[in-house]
Design goal:
Blueprint: E1 3-10, E2 15-22, E3 38-44, H1 47-51, H2 54-64, E4 69-74, E5 86-91, E6 101-106, H3 111-131, H4 141-162, H5 166-198, H6 225-240, H7 244-257, H8 263-275, H9 279-299, H10 309-346
Parallel strand pairs: 3-4
Antiparallel strand pairs: 1-2, 3-5, 5-6
Helix pairs in contact: 2-3, 4-5, 4-6, 5-6, 6-7, 6-8, 7-8, 8-9, 9-10
């Protein structure tokens, strides 16, 4: 089995240590992987539900969903005005069930309390089902509380970041990461163990691709997106306050948690190098980002027959964004290459 890189960040110095742990040797005490049933949470992402806050609900579910639960965006479910709407689809609700699947629609699933209530209901049902098979509940409550708290702190930090209150943002991101980092990584590993056990999805995925995240960069699980975004925003907040060393640590952490697959994390590294007058490092960061944007553009250029209009529009948006970023980075890379050639001649 493949090893995973876990980044341990220890405040206040935020020193970084990378531990390479084999999946088959890593013991998870706080989480245990359930066997089926498989549960799908399909969030309506029609324009009406988006206006009601569906994307925020989708993001929360992606971050908090326990193992054995797939989170996806979906088409309109004809409950306009009652959004955000989450359709709960259960396959093999219990071993003794005569029906192989069932579905129900939850209205107005908005905000942390509503999302937590939905997940509590799902976890309780799953615990009853797996108890008949002699296994344990999918997620230890204390760990999910830590993760949920970290996620909520990241939302507060995002608001400060968008308001350019960078010092407040840095402190809030630090608290969010400290609270949610460990349970997020453990939970994601448990999801992947569950996926291998049942042959299903990751337990937190934005679509049918196990590794896809978003148009900003694929290749790492959607359940870790909030953590990577927090690190990137913290990096840029620190750069605004000229804390280059702290920004470098955050940028490096973002590349590790994103499994080296988020182009914007590499842009963060390039920005750190630019702030420290490291032209070679900046160029290398931009080249890495450009290669990843090229991959995103190609992935979203593949036709998806049968997909609904919002999904097609979203794919087109992501493809266009990746193409625009790659084009802009190409100009910057060419300029840096000229600068480096000039420096070589002078030397």
């Amino acid at each position: 089995m493949k090893p995973i890189l876990l980044l341990l960040l220890s405040p206040p110095s935020w020193s970084i240590a990378i531990l390479v742990l084999a999946f088959n040797e890593f013991k998870i005490d706080a989480l245990s992987v359930p066997s089926p049933p498989r549960i799908i949470l399909r969030v309506c992402t029609s324009p009406g539900c988006r206006d009601d806050g569906a994307m925020s609900t989708l993001d929360r579910l992606l971050a908090l969903a326990p193992p054995g639960v797939d989170v996806v965006g979906g088409a309109c479910v004809s409950l306009c005005g009652s959004g955000p709407v989450v359709e709960v689809i259960r396959d093999d609700v219990a071993p003794s069930s005569s029906s192989s699947s069932s579905s129900m629609k939850k209205k107005r699933v908005k905000g942390g309390e509503a999302v937590s209530s939905l997940l509590d209901e799902i976890v309780a049902t799953a615990a009853i089902a797996v108890a008949e098979e002699g296994t344990t509940a999918p997620l230890e409550p204390r760990m999910r509380d830590r993760l949920a708290g970290g996620y909520e702190l990241s939302i507060e930090a995002n608001a400060a970041y968008e308001s350019r209150e960078y010092e407040l943002a840095i402190n809030s991101y630090a608290d969010a990461i400290e609270s949610g980092r460990k349970p997020a990584v453990l939970l994601q590993q448990a999801r992947e163990e569950a996926a291998r056990g049942v042959g299903g999805g990751t337990g937190a995925t934005s679509d049918d691709d196990d590794d896809d995240v978003d148009g900003g960069g694929g290749g790492y699980p959607a359940g870790l997106r909030w953590l990577v975004d927090s690190l990137k925003n913290s990096c840029r907040s620190r750069l605004s306050l000229r804390d280059v060393d702290g920004a470098r640590r955050d940028a490096f952490a973002a590349t590790v948690f994103s499994r080296n697959s988020d182009p914007d994390a590499h842009e963060c590294l390039a920005e750190v190098c630019a702030a420290s007058n490291d032209a070679l490092g900046e160029m290398q960061g931009l080249k890495s980002a450009s290669r990843l944007y090229d991959r995103v553009e190609r992935e979203y250029s593949v036709p998806t027959p049968g997909s609904d209009a919002p999904t097609r529009a979203d794919a087109a948006r992501r493809r266009a964004h990746a193409a625009a970023r790659r084009r802009e980075l190409g100009f910057r890379i060419a300029k840096l290459e000229r600068v480096l050639r000039g420096m070589t001649r002078e030397a």
